[in-house]
Write a structure and sequence with these properties.
binds zinc ion, 181 residues, globular, single chain, 9 strands, 4-stranded parallel sheet, 2 domains, alpha/beta, 3-stranded antiparallel sheet
């Protein structure tokens, strides 16, 4: 990415919208969790039942004001401003790269978090309304619950990803700053 228009504010998750290229599905889901409006090419291709050529992805990004994250160096050369080349590595390394080299900032606010499956912003729901949707222990130990308005997936702090028993916040504690209650 070129140096113009890359101020820290411009990439705060309240304003930036993204497209994650194929191969970056885990990163896409994590960015949704962190509040970024993130499309994932793998899902788009699945819903279209066909591959999405690079020029089409770029056109979509331009039309919808999104930056593209990709592992494909050739693709990244098509638009050095809009396409960010992500070096290989774990999701944590990817986030660190975006933070240190691309001026991204990551701040977790549960209310701004998005469903990792649908990319819809989660909504706070009354505890009672999700009683039958989570296990007893979770219901007892947590007080603030959130739900995806599209797929009804229930979220609560510390265990945002259903299969992430350790909680994403602890996994990425070195990357995500200023966790806000
Ligand atoms: Zn959802």
């Amino acid at each position: 990415m070129s140096t113009n228009n890359t101020s820290k504010q411009a990439k705060n998750y309240h304003s930036i919208k993204l497209i994650c290229d194929a191969m970056l599905g885990k990163l896409a889901r994590t960015l949704r969790f962190l509040g970024f409006d993130t499309l994932y090419v793998g899902e788009l291709e699945q819903s279209l039942s066909s591959a999405l050529p690079d020029p089409d992805i770029l056109e979509l990004a331009r039309e919808t004001g999104r930056f593209i994250l990709t592992r494909d160096e050739m693709f990244s050369r098509m638009d050095s401003h809009r396409i960010i080349l992500i070096p290989g590595g774990s999701v944590e390394e990817n986030l660190n790269y975006l933070k240190s080299k691309q001026s991204f900032s990551f701040t977790f606010v549960q209310e701004d978090s998005r469903c990792y499956k649908c990319n819809k912003r989660v909504k706070k729901v009354p505890k009672k309304s999700i009683e039958k949707m989570v296990n007893e222990k979770t219901f007892e130990h947590h007080h603030a619950f959130f739900q995806c308005p599209s797929c009804n997936q229930v979220y609560w702090k510390g265990a945002h990803f259903k299969r992430d028993e350790d909680g994403i916040l602890s996994r990425f504690s070195g990357v995500i700053e200023d966790e806000i209650e």
